[in-house]
Write a structure and sequence with these properties.
The protein is built from 14 helices and no strands. It is mostly helical. The protein has one domain.
């Protein structure tokens, strides 16, 4: 296994963890305000990395000295994405916001062609479009519960936003939602831009991501104070969900994604990212929430088929 293949496998761990967002978020019962939950989970992610520093006999302070670009990408990517996502959820229908925000894997595939040494093949584009179609079919066709599920599936804290959106699911395009839609597109641009541009900061160790998480937690706490009321988790399940999110989908996932996009096959990771919503919905169905459908099967075929097509393209290019 080459170093790039190993990094790709490590990066794919993030996708598996993001697939657990909805199930873990259900444990919080949707009672924790979005920015409060974001602050708590990103702080836990920082603590997770701090433990890793301690195990290595390091205070972690040396990782503070990073190029300005690395800080801009890290904090801008983490905080910028979630800020736009949560605000979009408040201004426009949840499903439509998620459909627009989930353009980021496709944008990663396309923007990666701008990187030195990367070549965009037709199979990458076709695979990404096929997986995108499956993702949209999955999000738009899950029925009434899709408002909650789609909010949970995006990267980040997986906050429950059902009933907090700017309109009903499936509503006709409304000019009042334009700003929300623009923020949703901003999510896609921010996260894809962060992922692709991170290749230019390969020298920045993944250990530095812990500090990016801490700054993101502080900024989220400021937003919480400005716009939300604090809610103390009242049940042990709430704490289990918060800790689980902070350790997995927010903690380990961002660390492995950083390593994967810097050193792995970024086009393949972009296409594989469409598996996250599929994993999320399947886990919810296995937990007894929702029902299997033909639409879900078709979405599964499209996402898996697109991923396999992109994977074949990468293998063929490696053999040349």
């Amino acid at each position: 296994m080459t170093a790039a293949q190993k990094a790709t496998w490590i990066g794919s761990i993030s996708i598996l963890l993001w697939g657990t967002l909805a199930l873990m978020t259900r444990l919080t019962d949707g009672e924790i305000p979005p920015f409060q939950l974001m602050a708590m989970t990103f702080f836990i992610a920082f603590l997770l990395m701090a433990v890793n520093w301690w195990r290595q006999g390091d205070s972690g302070l040396r990782y503070l000295r990073q190029p300005r670009l690395a800080w801009l990408l890290g904090v801008g990517g983490y905080f910028g994405y979630h800020f736009c996502y949560f605000r979009a959820m408040q201004l426009a229908p949840a499903v439509e916001v998620s459909l627009l925000a989930y353009l980021w894997p496709l944008l990663i595939v396309l923007l990666s062609a701008l990187l030195p040494g990367e070549r965009l093949r037709w199979a990458h584009c076709v695979g990404a479009l096929l997986a995108l179609a499956g993702c949209w079919l999955l999000l738009a066709g899950t029925g009434a519960p899709s408002t909650e599920i789609s909010a949970d599936m995006d990267i980040g804290t997986g906050v429950e936003t059902g009933g907090q959106t700017g309109g009903e699911t499936g509503a006709e395009t409304n000019p009042d939602y334009i700003f929300g839609y623009a923020l949703a597109l901003g999510c896609a641009v921010i996260w894809s831009g962060y992922s692709v541009a991170s290749r230019t900061t390969k020298s920045v160790p993944t250990a530095a991501v812990g500090w990016f998480c801490l700054v993101t937690a502080v900024l989220a706490a400021v937003c919480h104070v400005l716009w939300e009321s604090f809610v103390w988790p009242s049940q042990w399940q709430h704490w289990l969900g918060i800790i689980g999110l902070g350790l997995g989908p927010v903690g380990i996932a961002f660390f492995t994604w950083d390593y994967g996009v810097k050193h792995g096959h970024i086009q393949l990771l972009g296409v594989l990212a469409y598996a996250a919503p599929l994993i999320s919905v399947v886990l919810l169905l296995l937990a007894g929430e929702g029902q299997w459908s033909v639409g879900l099967l078709l979405a599964c075929i499209a996402i898996v088929g697109g991923s396999l097509l992109a994977g074949m393209a990468k293998r063929s290019s490696a053999a040349v």
